[in-house]
Amino acid sequence: MIIGIDSSGFKGEVAIYGGGNIEVHTLEYAEDIPGFLDEKGIKPEGFEAIGVSIGPGSFTGLRVGLAIAKGMAKGRGIDVYGIPTFDGLLFGQEDGLYIPVLHARRGIVFSARIKKEGESFERLIEDGVYPLQEVLGWDGVFIGNALERYQKEFKDRKKVEKFTIADGVARITEMAIRGMGISAVKNPETPIYLSPSEAERKRMGDFDILPVSPQEIPEILEIEREAFVEPWDMRSFLLVLAEGEKCIVWKVVKNGIIAGYLVGCFYGQKFHLMNIAVKKGYRRKGIARALLHNLLKYLKKKGDVIEVYLEVRIHNEPAIELYKMFGFRIEAIIPEYYKNGDDGLLMKLPLSGIQ
Ligand code: COA
């Protein structure tokens, strides 16, 4: 039996391929794949090989997928094959000229222009990170999860809306075992991650992330009050600042203006993300993402933090989406966590296992 895994988007897909049959299942989180297989009575001991998409795709997703594949293979003599995401995506399609489009960031997609002929995938434009507007000018059939996200933009384009990646990943893995999957990488160490940061910087312009000083709290409080129904007061900010190295209080400065901030504290090996907000008029430009990206990079470099956790109001969709994008998952509902009676969600992101 061969297992194909794809976690290049925000969900997990697993293909179970054996005896000429293939089943594909979509799960909310890629991390659930081992538990899901176990529940179905499918044990890793019976795997011939595991295929996993290795990019392009979401940074967190790809790493989680590879970590899962390696975890299941470990100590069992099972080989892991890394399959380029777009080859997995196109494998089951008819021959033709395709433009895979996977959502990377707002207005930015992972893409390429590929001529598919049988089992050969010739790159006419290399896998990379491209502004959506540029990709819309390419000729070919569009396919991938960005179609759903940008329905208006793709309305009159040639497209394939129904697709799976794990299916192709499993089938290419099967060919690789027989020495035929030319694009497969045996036992890959790291995913192929293409950073959207350059395209991102172009979109956002220049900004800096710096520590907040006590004199800046009035400016921060203005953002806090427009962002929350139960805002922190001056004293709360001063208290976290007074904690020194136990807490992080960072601001984003754009054109000399504080556009957003983040607050969190260390509790042993855990980090509690307590507050993040972006000034109105500066939202949806990647500022919160830049703050979180920097935070996670900093915590990983520090090395001793095993988990980041936070609470968020149950209906705060922008924030929940933001956290999910970084791989946070909902652990529990906290009834009436907020003063006005709103329930809270406890969300967690383990840092160990994800390099
Ligand atoms: N609706 C849906 N998703 C949203 C969203 C919205 N209004 N705003 C952000 N997101 C998600 C998206 O996935 C987005 O990626 P995309 O732009 O590629 O689609 C991702 O978050 C990153 O967005 P970004 O531009 O970095 O977010 P931001 O700088 O606008 O800040 C908040 C996001 C939540 C911090 C901001 O809306 C805010 O200050 N809200 C009020 C304070 C708050 O609720 N803080 C969270 C407390 S737990």
Describe the structure.
The chain is α/β, with parallel strands linked by helices. The strands form three sheets. A seven-stranded mixed sheet has the order 12-13-14-15-16-18-17, with helices on both faces. Strands 3-2-1-4-5-11 form a six-stranded mixed sheet, with helices on both faces. Strands 8-7-6-9-10 form a five-stranded mixed sheet. The model has no long low-confidence stretch (mean pLDDT 91). Strand 13 (247-254) and strand 14 form a beta hairpin. It has eleven helices and 18 strands. Helix content is 28%, strand content 34%. It has three domains: 2-87 and 165-186, Nucleotidyltransferase, domain 5 (2-Layer Sandwich); 94-160, Nucleotidyltransferase, domain 5 (2-Layer Sandwich), CATH 3.30.420.40; 198-350, Gcn5-related N-acetyltransferase (GNAT) (Aminopeptidase, 3-Layer(aba) Sandwich). Bound molecules: coenzyme A. Residues 105-106, 227-228, 276-278, 283-289, 312, 316-319, 321-322, 325 line the site of coenzyme A.
